[in-house]
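Lab notebook, bench 4. Still working through the backlog of constructs that have no structural model yet. Next entry is a single chain of 236 residues. Request: give me the structure tokens for it.
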Amino acid sequence: METAVIIPAKDEAERIGATVTAARALPGVDLVVVVDDGSADTTGRVARAAGARVVRHSRNRGKAAAMETGAEAVRLLDPEEGPGRHLLFLDADLGETAGAAAPLVEPVLAGEADMTIAVFTTRVKLGGHGFVVNLSREGIKKATGWTPAQPLNGQRCLTRTAFEAARPLAHGFGVETGLTIDLLRRGFRVREVEVEMSHRATGGDWHAQLHRARQFRDVARALLARRALPTPTTSR
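Model written out:
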């Protein structure tokens, strides 16, 4: 069974070309779809030049919407017979390290997992203090009993069946948290896999702080909708 790579992207013209090139070289990947989520730069043009199929949102709709758009584009390109391609979601800013994503696909191909989540072995220094990560981690633990190492990691491989079971996805930056809880609650097998990948670190300026505030809001909403919002004493 082949695997399709889906890359949500907004204003990533500088790095999307290298990410697409590396993703296309992954074993078993026969399709790379970039969802240009309302970019103001040449993200879509660069991605297409690198060999990706590009779907564009006329305005920014958020990560969850981009993931659903990408999955629908893959479905339309899947063969009429059979279960359809597996879906490998990658961030647009991975660059050449996207080529290290093969270990995420292998357990899904082998039927050993329904969703894999990347754990980066190379950690970059982040500008925040881990508030959003801790909120997500403790919420997932409260909801399912499982404690993930990197709950917000967007590098994930899923079967088509697992992806459809989790729809509709949680809004915006709450998508990873909601996806993990929903699949575990439905009995799907989720596994974390170490990979030699890295993305651009989030800085500490006001733009980055605003980004983290939006992440916190969306993760909290996803947890609240699933009655999994941790108490302040458990989310420290």
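Notes after review: The chain has a mean pLDDT of 92. The two ends are 43 Å apart (CA to CA). Flag for follow-up if needed.
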